[in-house]
Amino acid sequence: MRTFDYSNLKARTWDNEVLGYVAQIHEYKGRQELFLRRQPEDLERLVEIAKIQSTEASNEIEGIRTTNTRLKQLCAEKTTPRNRDEREIAGYRDVLNTIHENYEYIPLRPGYILQLHRDLFKYSERGIGGSFKNTQNYISATDAAGHSFVLFTPLAPYETPTAVEAICESFNRVADTQEIDPLILIPVFIHDFLCIHPFNDGNGRMSRLLTTLLLYRCGYPIGRYISLESKIARTKDAYYDALELSQTGWYEEQDDPTPFIKYLLSTILAAYRDFEARVDLVGEKLPAIETVRRAVMGRIGKFTKAEIQAMCPGLSKTSVESSIKKLVDDGFLIKHGVGRSTFYTRRDAE
């Protein structure tokens, strides 16, 4: 079995793209801290939106779905799960809430990871929560002809507990020294976690929950206000490509985690940029239609009503809908499609 010693990262040199991401995130982090000190009440609306988007997106990546109405009811704990998908959605909701509310008291240790996994599946009837895998699993893909093939074979079940203990110990030890930027350390840990693939099910969801937890614990609470999971869901092809590139040579300790580091840092940076855009809209007390107009001007390409609603947390759904209709009637926006397939573009993009 390979060894895990993150102190070796001190000897690595990173290209300008990685260093640029790190520098920009540090800058945005500093500005976010200023925003949070002001504590506008509308920021709590961002929290609720992010929880719903994170719960939906992280499960959607795994093919776990329900209707928008049911999703909101489940996230608000105003209903009980009706089927397997909804039971897993409810489990993700609970673990995400636990992380948001208790991250300072959730150390990175195997026992705590197992407890989070237990809670992820606590509504499930399969009895798989809270235990490491007991059968070999595989990371597979499907080609254009529909044929499935193995991309990567994770560690065997008997190696898994020791490996999870090792990555947790190494992360904690190196993080305590502060010799390596946590923005480098976190993606490397998550990459190794995914290569180990320690559970029979829920590895992807656990990796995204642990990303949010570690960012919190290292002083980057962006996942509280902006859904990282929704950004990963929108770019999941790039996510899987980065993972595949970084897995090459993993068993021989010849792997290069740089592609996955770049992917995750670009995702975190995009979340910080979204946070600033939304806070700007929250901070200015403008008429609803002007708030929506500014949100639209910050978008490139097509967008949905729900995306604009997320950008305007201080407005009600009715206010957003009526503002969008007025902007369409005025010729500022163009409506495309009908029903659930409806999207909008700016007139000046024609």
Descriptive report:
- With 350 residues, the protein is mainly alpha-helical.
- The protein has two domains: 6-280, Fic-like fold (Orthogonal Bundle); 287-349, Winged helix-like DNA-binding domain superfamily/Winged helix DNA-binding domain (Arc Repressor Mutant, subunit A), CATH 1.10.10.10.
- 58% of the residues lie in helices and 5% in strands.
- The chain has 14 helices and four strands.
- The protein has helices at residues 16-38, 43-61, 68-75, 84-102, 110-120, 160-177, 182-196, 203-217, 228-234, 236-247, 258-283, 288-297, 305-311, 317-329, and strands at 139-142, 148-152, 333-336, 343-346.
- Strand 3 and strand 4 (343-346) form a beta hairpin.
- Helix 4 (84-102) packs parallel to helix 8 (203-217) and helix 7 packs antiparallel against helix 8.
- The termini are far apart.
